[in-house]
Each structure stands twice: as structure tokens, then as C-alpha cells.
Amino acid sequence: MDFLYNNLIYFIPIMGFIGILFMLGKSSWVTKQDAGDGAMTELSGHIADGAMAFLKAEWKILSYFVAVAAILLAWSGTTVATSSPVIAVSFICGAFLSAFAGFIGMRIATKANVRTTQAARTSLAQALKVSFTGGTVMGLGVAGLAIIGLGSLFIVFYTVYVKNVAGSTVNGEDMARALDVLAGFSLGAESIALFARVGGGIYTKAADVGADLVGKVEAGIPEDDVRNPATIADNVGDNVGDVAGMGADLFGSYVATMLATMVLGREVASHDNFGGIAPVLLPMVIAGLGLIFSIVGAAFVKIKNETDSVQKALNIGNWASIILTAIATYFVVQWMLPADDLHMIRDEASGVLKEGASHFTRNGVYGAIVVGLVVGTLMSMITEYYTAMGKRPVLGIIRQSSTGHATNIIGGLAVGMESTVLPILVLAAGIYGSYYCAGLYGVSIAAAGMMATTAMQLSIDAFGPIADNAGGIAEMSRLPEEVRHRTDNLDAVGNTTAATGKGFAIASAALTSLALFAAFVGVAGIEHIDIYKAPVLAGLFVGGMIPFIFSSLAISAVGRAAMAMVEEVRRQFREIPGIMEYKAQPEYEKCVAISTKASIREMVAPGMIALITPIIVGFTFGPEVLGGMLAGVTVSGVLMGLFQSNAGGAWDNAKKSFEKGVEINGEMFYKKSEPHKASVTGDTVGDPFKDTSGPSMNILIKLMSIVSLVIAPHLNANVQKSASIDHQVKKEIRVQSMHVNAFKVDKKG
Amino acid sequence: MDFLYNNLIYFIPIMGFIGILFMLGKSSWVTKQDAGDGAMTELSGHIADGAMAFLKAEWKILSYFVAVAAILLAWSGTTVATSSPVIAVSFICGAFLSAFAGFIGMRIATKANVRTTQAARTSLAQALKVSFTGGTVMGLGVAGLAIIGLGSLFIVFYTVYVKNVAGSTVNGEDMARALDVLAGFSLGAESIALFARVGGGIYTKAADVGADLVGKVEAGIPEDDVRNPATIADNVGDNVGDVAGMGADLFGSYVATMLATMVLGREVASHDNFGGIAPVLLPMVIAGLGLIFSIVGAAFVKIKNETDSVQKALNIGNWASIILTAIATYFVVQWMLPADDLHMIRDEASGVLKEGASHFTRNGVYGAIVVGLVVGTLMSMITEYYTAMGKRPVLGIIRQSSTGHATNIIGGLAVGMESTVLPILVLAAGIYGSYYCAGLYGVSIAAAGMMATTAMQLSIDAFGPIADNAGGIAEMSRLPEEVRHRTDNLDAVGNTTAATGKGFAIASAALTSLALFAAFVGVAGIEHIDIYKAPVLAGLFVGGMIPFIFSSLAISAVGRAAMAMVEEVRRQFREIPGIMEYKAQPEYEKCVAISTKASIREMVAPGMIALITPIIVGFTFGPEVLGGMLAGVTVSGVLMGLFQSNAGGAWDNAKKSFEKGVEINGEMFYKKSEPHKASVTGDTVGDPFKDTSGPSMNILIKLMSIVSLVIAPHLNANVQKSASIDHQVKKEIRVQSMHVNAFKVDKKG
């Protein structure tokens, strides 16, 4: 154990490498599977090409953005003592790894889809194995890269800024500087996530609506017909939105949660065996454990017979990874944290005790982690209830479809609004409970606990769209009934996991934002965020409004981007003779490029709001008003995210219910009935709600928080300059002076 | 002037009486006007009977509620030193006057409608005179009763609690007690407003939808056909929702604003000629002035020729009252407030200076009042822009109607979300500006300034539905083309004033809530509401969620209440033979009763949320968490109110635009075209948005704040009991000890 004690920080990236090794193994296994006959491979080849076309176009734009942002960051890093131009390097690493994780996910998803279809020709068990293994490649890739990236950079910055300062006794200010620079990694990851999630959301719905409007309505050809130039874009969109978008979102949450917990961990006075930095290392260790146990849990996901429940297999794997991680975390917490009192300090220089920050124990820290696990699980369950077929909310919308389009819409909106209640109560109880357990460090370690099994969560999430695509390929390739029956089985489970995944993503974004918020307050060096002060209250109002304008822009963008797609498809039908007679192939990649460009262009305005508003507010009105604004954004963003995602999910499943037929007041209704038409209206309204504006709320609240955290040292410098009478008052209420013990990594016990 | 100085508090209710005298004169003038021929009077008689039936049913339920609440208040008044059982008397007075004001408005509206129709047979000028005079009766009645009620009770409580304590030197604690008891008046008014606004909103839409579903769809008879038992309920609904609901809403805002400013005024240290209570008296004096100048402004509202602009006449009257009030207020502020420094104190016992509370001057106070006037005007203008025909937002929805129901809905939702941006920025700037001018007292006096001309605002608001009803009566009585042309002219202006009135109502509710919020913090005796503390942040989340569940319940309630109406209409068609042949009269009053009962039953759940949540949260988690929750409710409620009201208004006018024909991509579309059908879907979705859930946000945020203010002394008592180490810290930061000068009403200068 001595070796472990002394070299723990080096073991963190090693756990990430283990994840990547397993990922490579699984990836090569998937690639080796049979990809089926000519029609199937051609189809999946087009989708894979389209996905690459999207990534290339995205990367081109992003490279400019990353370059400009990195220069600005490098310059700003020179302006305050607590930062460094090296932050630009972190930023570039974060951006690169986030983009790379998206690439891995997209590539495996476009390979696994057709191989799942082919596997479904033999058995359900084999189809599940291929599709879920594809999902685990994504899950392990995202989590592995995040841990390697953050862990390695931490080692570098720790060595440069902290360790080499006078050997064994370490200045806490230096650790603050190391973490400030590390925040750039999270900013890079979250910026790329913005493009992936919002751009991807606009892309998938623009392609979907555009393909339908010209293909089905104008040209009179069926959905997913190969003659439609936009059909590949439509299929690419599913991967872009559901796979890459979700992956980037969770990559961002995962990194941001660890980072925020590390920043708060620096402020925990701990007499531990790691020279006082155990609370800083803990979130990364927990993430590493979660990754390892996600690999173990994934091994449980298998079925033997055709009649076995796929959902049950996924649940067993999920619970296995959660329970094993929870047990292992208990021993790690006991091992790493000291048996005596822990408490929050402002910083070791002033020693001001944070008001309301309680003393706590290592058992309290473990309690907070358990709270986080429970919150994540409950949020997923509630989301499933509000969007599942056969439950009260969806049944209500079905009933209201019988009186027309308007009542269907009213029903869905009411369900969406109602669906905010339980998740908010769970979240509030989680905040309250984790704070009770271990103060503000508890709130952020709860988020870390919840995110620990991200690899497993993401594996299950990515399995859904792979199964969905596999079903589409089976349908288009006219494979036998039994094949489609098997892929339908997987697809149905995929719909449920998509809903629960969204609940988990929102919960993680909310807790991550709160952790970042708490870290921001500490780094900005403010005592309170007092909404009794009118300017702070004004900030709260402005913050609350931002998710509304962001949603409005995202929803409108889908409309405009769909129109651009419609024009391109019309042009191809007009200018390329022979498409309709299968004699000429449509220029799929042009539609893909149009959709990509439109989506990236359309997401600039909402993206800029998220990036620039905190900077303007922070430097104009100071950190406390910015804090008020962040709180407003977070509360309003979580509410709007839940409202829109759940309304959209409920509308979708209300429409899907008509496929098997539904009973309203004793009468049966099927597809093409009047109530079904009304339900299609609801589903169309719900599309941008659940796939564009709703999920982009996650990125919005996280990105605004991480931008604030990155600029916090600059705002703090401003505060110090203008400190006058207020400073005197603060000095008087200093209750006691505390010094964090030396930051040295050598064993004591 | 000596006489004025010494007796100012007695002049306040006198100004209210002047308003009531003018109201009586105008009311008797309207009643004397010709009510037209037999068909017209019969029709309006049914509407008037229906309105009374609603009021009777409402009062029956409300009398139980008022009795129970009064007993609870009287009991709770005995439990803490700073309150008194007399608060129950205030409560009953507030409830009674609010109900009485609703009665006045409803009665005059049901008289003025038919008389406007008759007047429109001669000239537009005469029709405007009758309808606007009807509106002023409502406006003057609401404002007059509010000032008389609050002013008289203040005299009583001032005499009982403050003046007779040892003659000239007065204890500030006694003033606190007088104002605590006075808060019951505002609670009573706002509770009745909840029933009027929410119940009325459910009523009007239930009757509307119910009448349409059975009448137009099932029985195949036209809209507003006398054979439809629900048609009277439908017409009553317009008065119940738009007249009585809006009146009760503004009555509540008007009273609450004055009260909150008085509570904060007590905490302003002022060496004025009124023995230091000028800041307490000022809001009532400003309200009195605004009432007087509303009477003056109303005299400007007239036209001479058929071609004169009705909107211009209303604008001239509105601006006259605002400008005159602004000028008069300047001199009153100079006269009442001292030339030297003013500042906020915590209370005269501890003398703790509130953190962030700036010192200010009487010019600052005047500046804050001007800020309030500007905020109200801008909010009205922005609302008009987002809901007016021919402007970008509505034109966008029209264009999106061409591609179907779903895109129409998406367009309206995007417009509604976008419409929150400018009002929130105006509001935030208003909060910031008024705070800059005069601290927290500035925020509340800004609200008082904005509400000063409530009488005029409400006159213009009530004119709208009267003109609307007049047009309906003209249509149903088949009067000549020129009559309908005149009432259409008035109705079109009424649509605009309805939109601007909603903007004003939301702005007033927002500022009122903030003023109440500030008053609550003072009375509850807390130093900060620090959202950096996790429990407070949890409160913020829960508060933000409440407007969502409230809206969901209100929207769903409309659906259920409409179903109850449908069943009653079906029963009458079935059980009363001869209705369809005009041989038997339908039992209109039964439909009215059904709708009334359904609406009152359906509003219990949302109403209880508003009333009980602050009590539970306050007593369980303490005043600071309650403060966080109130902030969440206010921010989220204002956003949801703007979103829903403006989306509904925009959908409505997009639909109305088709009546004259609209051009989409070079093609003209009229009624019954496919895009028109899509616009009808949007309008139906918008109905509960703009007339039920949207406006009820106003009441929600005010009522939760006033409930919190009423329970604040009880929470403060709890704080005092548990004060320990925290109290010691507070003592140390006491910067200086201040004593408010004696509360005596005799002249010094």
C-alpha cells in the first residue's frame, strides 16, 4: 500500500488507460463482426460517410474557434497572478479530447448499426451483444479519455506549480493556480460539447423535417427512400444528435464535476495521509473506480434465449456497476480521508470560515456520494414515468388527441410542466441532503458520485440509437419478419433508455452546475450571493430569462435549417436527371454538408449568449451579480430542460401508441385516424423540444458556469483592488485563523 | 399648509372618497343612457343575471374561506408580540372591499355593454363616451375603495397602536405592529384576487370551449346562438375574466405596493416634518394624487368626428394622467421629505445598518418613482409589439401557419419565449436603477409610482371588454352595418389595450412582489438571503418549479371544467324539449352555476399551493430558505407569465389576421383556408395560456409574497429564540447605532 500511497496520482490516468484498452478490444471485436450483404453495407457506408462529412465540417469551424479562444485565454492568463497562459494548453487538450471522444462514438455507432442488423438474423442474444458492445466502446472511450486527459494534466500542473516549490511544504496558492489552469480543460470540453449538442440537435431535426417535407409530401416517395438526397442526412442526424451529442454532453459533465470537486476539495482542511490533498484527489479516484466497475457491469449484460428480457439484462449490468462502485467507494473514502474532523476554509491565507459551512466527517462525505447515486437513479425513474407508454401522462395525451390538435398540444404542455415537480423536489432534497452530509464539498462530491458510472450510463444510452439504426437498416433492406421483430425488441428498449438517459443527463448537468457554482464563489473570493441586494436580484432575473431566449433561438433555428435543406433537395431533384428512376445517385454528401453548415451557423447566436454573457456581466457588475445570474440560469435552465424534454418524449410515445392501436372512450383508434393525426402534430412540436432545445439546456447551464469559473480569478483581482471599508468589516468577523496543512505527497501513517 | 401638515393622514381617505364620488356620478350617467330595444335588453339582462349568479356562487364559497382564514389569523395574531388578533379584521376588510370592487366593475360592465351598442347607432364619439365612462367607473371604484380602505385602517391602527402611546414620543416597534396588522388587509385583497383571477380565468375558457364543443360541433348552431344554454355563460365569462379578474388583480397589486412601501418606509430614517413617518405616508399620498389625476386624464378621452382615432384619445388621457401625476409627485416629495440625508435602518432598537443599503436623498426617491413610471410604460409597449397584428412576431406565426398545425405551434412558442427578453431587461434595469436611486425603499416606491395611475390604467383595460361585448350584442341583434363598423373600431382598440394592460399587470405584479419580498426580509429580521448556502439554493429551485405546476394545474383545469359544461349542455338539450325550436328557454343560470362551481372547485388545488407552501417552507426551514423560494417563484412566475400571455396574444392575433386576409409567399389566404385552420389550433392552445395560466402568475407571485410577509413576525420570533453565536457576530458588525426620531405628527418647520 505504501507504493499506492506515494504514487496515487499516477494511478489515476492508468485507470483511464485500462478503460481505453478494453474499448480497443471491444471496438475490434465489433469491427470483426459480419456487416451483411451489399445493400446493407452500401447503406451503412453512406451513413458513415455522412457522419464523417459532418465531423470534418464541424472540425473546420471549430478549429478557428479553438484557435481564437486559446489566444484570448493565453493573453488573459498573463493578466492575473493566480492564472497562467498555460490555461490555453489545457483548453486545447479539452477541446481535442472532447472532439476525439465524439469521433470514437460516431465511428463505432455507424459500424455497429449494420452489424447488429446482421446479428439479428441469427438471434436476439447476438444482436444485443453487438449493439451493446458498440455502446460500451462509446462509454469507455468517453470516460477513459476524460480520466486520462484530466489526470495527466493534473500530474503535469501539480509537478510544475506545486511539487517543485521548496520540496515538502507546499503553498496552497500554488495548488489554486494549478486548478485554475486545469479549468481550461473543462472549458475546452464544454465548448465542444455546446457545438456537438446544440449543433447536433439542430442538425438532426433539420434533416428529419427537411427530408419529410420534400420527400414524403412533395415527391411522394416513402420515408427512408434511397432516392431522397436528404435521407442519409436524416440517418446521420440520429447518430449526430443521440450518440455524439449525448457523448459530448456527458464528457463535459464528467470532467466539470471532477474539476469543480477538486477546486472545492482544495478548500477542505484535511489531515490526511496524502498531505492534505485527499479531497482534491478523491473525485478522480472515484471516477476511475466507476470506470473499472462499468467494465465489470458491462459483462453482466447478456441474454441467452429469445424470450429473455433485454431491459432486465441492461438493468442488471447497470445496478452491478452502481453497487460495486458504491461499495468500493466506501473503502476508498475510509482509506483516503482522515478519521478526524474535516471542514471548509476560505483559503489558507485569510483563514475566514465560510458562513454556513459545517464541519463534517469522512462518513459524511460517503453519505453525500450515496445521495448523488440516489438522485441520479430517481431522476431517471421519474423521467421514464412521464414519457413511458401506458402510464398516466402519455395516456392523458392520447385521450386529449381525440378532440383535436389543440387539445393534444395543451395536454402535452401540461404534462411537460407537471413533470418538473418530482425531479425538482428530488434535486432540492439532494442538494439539502448532500450539504447536510458534507457542506458544499458534499454537494459537489454527490455530483461526482452520480457521475462515477458515466461509462455504463453512456453505454446504455448509445445502445439505443444503434438499435434504432439497426431496425431502420433491417426495414430498408427488407429482411425477414423475425429479424425486424428482434430489432424492434431492441429498439423499444432503446426508447426507454433514451428517456432515462435524458433524465440522468439533466440531473448530472444540474448537480455539475451547482458544483461549478460553488467552486466559482470560492475562486471569485466573495462571501455571499445575497439576492436581497437589488443588483443581485436583477442578475437572477436576467439569468432566468436566458434559457427562454436560448430555447427560442434553438427552436427557430430548426425551422430555418429545415428550409435550407428543403431547397437543396428541390435543387437536386431539378438538376440531377434520373434520380427518381434510380439511374443517378443523389449527392447525399451535399445535403449532409448543407445540414451541417446550417446547423453550425444557426448555433452561433445561442452559443455566443452562453459564452459571452457571463464575461460581460462579471466584468461590468462584479462576481456577486454574476453569481445571481448563474443561479437564475441554472434554476430556469433545469426547469426548461425538464419541461421541454419530457413534453417532447410524452408526445412522441403518445404518437407511437397509435401504431398498436389505442382505446379512447371504448373505441379503438389506429394510424391515420383523426386522433393519430393530432398526435403527429404533438410529436412534430415535441421534436425540437426533446432533441434540440431541451437537451441543450444541459450545456447552457454548465458552459455558463465553467466560463464564470475560468474568469473568476480575474474578477477576484478586481474585488481586491476595490476593497475598502467592506474589507475592514470582513476582517472583524474573522472568527479564527486556520491553516491548511502542508500539501505534500508523502505518507505519514 | 399647517392644517395639511397636521392632518395629512386624514386627507388620504378623502382623496379616495373624491374618486368614489366621481365614480357614482359616472355610474349614474351610464345607467341613464338608452339601453336599446327589447332583444338587446333581454340579451344583456341574461348576461347581467349570469354575472350575478357567478358572484353569488363565488361569495358563498369565499365566505367559508374568509371565516376560516380569519379565525386562524386571529389565533396566530395572539402568538407573537409584534402582531395582534386584530389582523383578522384587516383581512376581512380587504377581502370584502376586493369582492365589492369586483361587484362594481362587473355590474357597470354588464350595463355599459348594451348602452354602448345603442350609442353606436348614433355616433362613434358617443359610443366611446359610454364604453370608456363604464371603464372609468371600474377604475375609480377599485382605486377609490383601495385608498379608503387602507387609509382608514391606517388611521385606526395608528391611533390605537402608535399615537396614544405617551403622547409625542412614539415607539417605532408600535408602528411595526400597526403595519403588521395592516398587512392583513393586503392578504385579504390578494386572496380574493386569487379566486377572481384564477377562477375567472378557468370560468371564461371553460364556458368558451364548452359552448363551442356542444353548440357549434354537436348541435350545429352558430356561435352566440340564444338556443345554446352555455352561450350566456360564455358572455358572462368575458366579464368575469377580463373585467373582474383584471380588477381584482390590480386592486391587489395597488394595495400590496402601498403596504410594502409603508413597511420599508418605516425603516427609513427621515428627519422630516411629519415626525419621521413621511416615507410611510408617501406611497398613500402618491396613490391619492394618481387617483385625482386619473379623473382629470379621463376628461381628455373624447373624440368629435367619426374619423378621429380612438387609440389616440385613450393615449392622450393616459399620458395626461401620468405626466400630471409625475409633476405633482415631484412637489409632494420636495414638500414631505427632508432636504438632508435619508437612509435605511434595520430597526431603531438594534440600529444595524443593512448591508448594501445606500444613503440617499429626496431627489433619489423622486428618481425611483420616475423609474417606475418608465418601466410600466415600456413593459406595455413591448407587450403590444409582441402581440400586435402586422408586426414581426405575429407575421412570423402567420407564415409558419402555412406549413401546418405543428409549425404554427412551434412559431408561437418561440415568440412567447423570445418575448421574455426585453421585459426582463427592462425590469432588471428598473430594479437596478431604482435601487441606485434610493436603496430598497427606491425599489418599492418605484412600484408605487408605476401603480399611481392604476385608476386610469384600469379604465382603459375595462373599456376593452365592454366594447367587445357591445360588438357581440350588435352582431347578435343584427343591427345595421354602420353600427357594427363603429363597435368593430372600438373592439380593435380594445384588443390592443388588452395586450398593453396585461403587460402593465405583469410589470406591476413583479415590482409589487419585489417590494413585498424586501419588506418580508426586513420584518423576518434576516441579514441576507444567501443563495450560496445550499438550503437556500434548494428553496430557489423549489420556488422556480411552482409556477410550472401552477400553470399545469390551471391549464388542465380548463379542460376538465369544459367537460363538465359539455355534459350540462347535453343534458339540457336532452331533457328540455323545444329548445331547438325556440319554444323553451334554456336554463342559462344552470350553465352559469356549473361553470362557476367547476371553476371554483378546480382552482382550489393551485390556490392552496400558493397559500400553504410559504407557510410550510417558512416554519420548517426558516425565513432565509423561504426568501430563496420567494425569489424563485417571482423570477420563474414573471417569465412564465410573459411567455404564456404573449404567446397566447400572438396566436390570437395571427388567427384574427386571416379575417382580412394575409399574404404568404405571394399567395392570399383567408378564413377557412388550411393556414387559417392551423392558426385556429394555435389560438385554442393560446386561450388558456393568455386568459388562465398566464395572468394567474401575477396573483401567484404576489400572494406567496404577502403570505410570507404576514407570517414573517412569527418566523422572526423563531429566529430570536434560536439566536446564539450568529447573534454575537452580528453585534460585532454593528457599524453605528441610530435612532429614528420620534413618531409624532406635529409640525416642526
Average pLDDT figure of chain A = 84
Oligomer: homodimer
The greatest inter-chain interface is formed by: A-B, 78 and 78 residues
Number of strands of chain A: 4
Q: Provide the structure class of chain A.
A: mainly alpha
Radius of gyration of chain A, Cα only, in angstroms? 26 Å
Helix content of chain A: over 70%
Could you explain the architecture of this structure?
The structure is a homodimer of 749-residue chains. With 749 residues, chain A is mainly α. Helix content of chain A is 79%, strand content 1%. Chain A has a two-stranded antiparallel ribbon with strand order 1-2. In chain A, strands 3-4 form a two-stranded antiparallel sheet. Chain A is globular and about 75 Å long. The termini of chain A are close together. In chain A, 65% of the residues are buried. The model of chain A is unreliable at 164-169, 347-356 and 718-749 (pLDDT under 50).
Write the layout of secondary structure elements.
2 copies of one chain form a homodimer.
Chain A: H1 2-32, H2 38-77, H3 87-119, H4 124-163, H5 172-219, H6 231-266, E1 268-269, H7 278-299, H8 310-336, E2 343-344, H9 362-387, H10 392-401, H11 405-418, H12 421-451, H13 454-476, H14 481-524, H15 534-575, H16 588-602, H17 604-621, H18 623-660, E3 662-664, E4 667-669, H19 674-722, H20 725-732
Antiparallel strand pairs in A: 1-2, 3-4
Helix pairs in contact in A: 1-4, 1-7, 2-3, 2-5, 2-6, 2-16, 3-4, 3-5, 3-6, 3-13, 4-5, 4-6, 4-7, 4-13, 5-6, 5-15, 5-16, 5-19, 6-7, 6-12, 6-13, 6-14, 6-16, 6-19, 7-8, 7-12, 7-13, 8-9, 9-12, 9-14, 10-11, 10-18, 10-19, 11-18, 11-19, 12-14, 13-14, 14-18, 14-19, 15-16, ...
